[in-house]
Amino acid sequence: MKDTHIYHNTIIIFLSTFNYCIIKGRCLFWRRKVMMDNILNQIFVLTVLMVVGIILRKKNVITDEVSKGMTNILMGVALPCLIISSFNIKFTKDMARNSINMIIYSTIVHMMLLAVSSLLFLKMEDKEKSIFKFCMIFSNCGFVGYPIAQALYGDIGVFYTSIFTIPQNIFVWSYGVMLFSGERGLKSIKNSFKNPPVIAVLLGCLIFIFSIPIPKPVLSTLKSVGNMTTPVAMFIIGAMLADSKVKEILSDKKVYLASFMRLIVAPALTVAVLILIKADKEMINICTILISMPAAILLGIFAEKYDGDKKAASSAVFMTTVLSLITIPLVIAALNAVL
């Protein structure tokens, strides 16, 4: 086999319709196809769950009181369990070093988006401003990001996604709550640490740093309860959407602006700032992909809990989720071309 060349288990593949590429261990094009299928499948599932929520609301199964109760269950039980279970990961010294870098990069990215959004939406009214700022800063990297990261990078992708969400969770439950509650300064930040999800993050950090083993029955329980997070959250969002008219959503130019800032501008700024600080290529890829997710579903949850603009919030979540079917593959393709 003279024409066959093997260099350190590297496989070289050439297809007439693609440029050749060098990868290790697996066929890159096969992985890309599987990755894209997983991305589209996950977003499709979220959309279907929202539609179910709409139907349940139309059938008066989810009333206002039921919606409030579901929100409390989500924020007080399901989400904390999901967060704690995601920290049950062992790591080596190299992973520890990379984890620190990921925390730094995630913090820088969220602070950058916070600063940029504050300047861009400075002249908006408070309720509208809170929607736009939250939408641009916080992506749905928890519920959509995990399966996409796993499709791209396997278990290591899930690990780094867990690390990336540490600063995000802290920002969400401090600055994010402050946006909707109206509280300012240290009081809002102090009160944020009373929220179950923030407490879960702190407990998760202890488990992660000290490699504290979680008994299998406890871990199974945490995962089972945590798995409620996505369907319950999307039911709530769907119930909110049921009170809105689709034609009004589609005709609202501001929803498209919010979607553009979340799905295009935020990932572009993320790539730029991480290249500027000379971050590792793999870290740039992971951070950008996670930031390119649709708006965090907590946008709608917070609007419900703190009497914000529920229609605008749920519309932004709905529109960014639908449009992300197109933009996420484009972002991934752009990363492959640029980096």
List key phrases describing it.
339 residues; mainly alpha; Na+/H+ antiporter like fold; two-stranded antiparallel ribbon; 75% helix
Structure notes:
The protein is mostly helical and 339 residues long. The chain has 15 helices and two strands. Helix 2 packs antiparallel against helix 10 (229-242). Residues 1-26 have low confidence and may be disordered.
Topology overview:
Layout: E1 10-13, E2 21-24, H1 28-58, H2 64-86, H3 93-120, H4 126-137, H5 145-153, H6 155-181, H7 186-192, H8 196-209, H9 216-226, H10 229-242, H11 246-251, H12 253-276, H13 281-291, H14 298-305, H15 310-338
Antiparallel strand pairs: 1-2
- CATH topology label: Na+/H+ antiporter like fold
Instruction: State the name of the first-level CATH class.
Output: Mainly Alpha
Distance between the termini: 34 Å
Distinct helical segment count: 15
Taking pLDDT < 50 over at least 5 consecutive residues as the criterion, the unreliable ranges are: 1-26
For the largest sheet, list the strands in their spatial order: 1-2
Estimated radius of gyration = 20 Å
List the domain count as a whole number.
1
- H-E order: EEHHHHHHHHHHHHHHH
Global mean pLDDT = 83
Shape: globular
- Amount of beta strand: under 5%
What fraction, in percent, of the residue positions are helical?
over 70%
Structural class: mainly alpha
Proper CATH architecture:
Up-down Bundle
Membrane topology: Multi-pass membrane protein
InterPro entries: Mem_transp_PIN-like, Na+/solute_symporter_sf
Family: Belongs to the auxin efflux carrier (TC 2.A.69) family.
Subcellular location: Cell membrane
